[in-house]
Amino acid sequence: MLEGVLFKAYGGFYYVKIGEEVWECSLRGKFRLGKGNPALVGDRVRVTPVRDRIGRIDEVLPRKTELFRPPVANIDQAVIVFAVKNPEPNLALLDRFLVLAESANVSPVVCLNKADLLTGHREHEWLKLYRRIGYPTVITSSKTSQGIEELRELLTGKTSVLAGPSGVGKSSLLNAVQPGLELKTGDISHKLKRGKHTTRHVELLPLRQGGFVMDSPGFSSLDLPQMERVELSYTFPEFAVFSAECKFSGCLHQHEPKCAVKQAVEQGLIQQERYQHYLAFLQEVIEQERRY
């Protein structure tokens, strides 16, 4: 068998880079009948040749990381892109994706795009919160080139995915980072006040400065990953320094007495909105536990 990297899955076909060649592959029957995502963009796979550059994926090698939304494997970081406006930033959705990335051991970067639409400082005050927590942040504009060099440096030498709602300008950003990609871009629907889907599939793209990047379809909602309720607080990094002081081990930071995290919220050391998102997510995780 030959070994390569799955760089695109589209229309029921899987395209694998083997050396300098591109092979069009199908999936072995046992994968098609299985549950979940049998082969993801970014996977290292073993291919059995069928005929000239056409093969069958017979084995998916172990993954170091995996995201289910977007469905990608073996990435180092997720650049989570939101816009200044058009569409307006949804911080609950941002926190959902941060939980997803943290639980998958994927390093997140928070990107605020369309900086050319900024009319005042308060429009991106929320970004400072994530910077204080410790997340790398970048402010960009594909129209003025603000932050493009900084974003390029963040992508260099890593395998990254750009993720976020439709219409925030992910494809435009990648076109600015590497002219010549010519990814399709779209506009905001003025009627629905949200982006139109222009990226229909995930594709692994090589960067000239080293590394790989994936554009991905936008989303307007996001399920939380399956986890135990006690694991959720670990995906909120700002809780860590306080949770060690909670009276009870396994504290959920909800109704428990002498909870150091709740005290930190009351003292303004943990941002109230992030904590409220945590409580809402906790209820979802508990409901998931009951279903499974």
What does this molecule look like?
By secondary structure, the chain is α/β, with parallel strands linked by helices. The chain has three domains: 59 residues, Nucleic acid-binding proteins (OB fold (Dihydrolipoamide Acetyltransferase, E2P), Beta Barrel), CATH 2.40.50; 150 residues, Rossmann fold (3-Layer(aba) Sandwich); 63 residues, Ribonucleotide Reductase Protein R1, domain 1. Helix content is 25%, strand content 26%. The chain contains eight helices and 15 strands.
- The CATH superfamily label of the largest domain reads P-loop containing nucleotide triphosphate hydrolases
List low-pLDDT spans: 186-199
| Alpha-beta content class | alpha/beta
Order of helices and strands: EEEHEEEEEHEHEHEHEEEEHHH
Whole-number radius of gyration? 21 Å
What overall geometry do the principal axes of the alpha carbons give?
Answer: globular
What does the largest sheet look like? 6 strands, mixed
| Lateral strand order in the biggest sheet | 10-9-8-11-15-14
Total domains? 3
First and last CA, distance:
38 Å
What helical percentage do the residues reach?
25-40%
Count of individual beta strands: 15
Give the class-level CATH name of the largest domain.
Alpha Beta
Oligomer: single chain
Specify the number of helices.
8
And the CATH topology of the largest domain? Rossmann fold
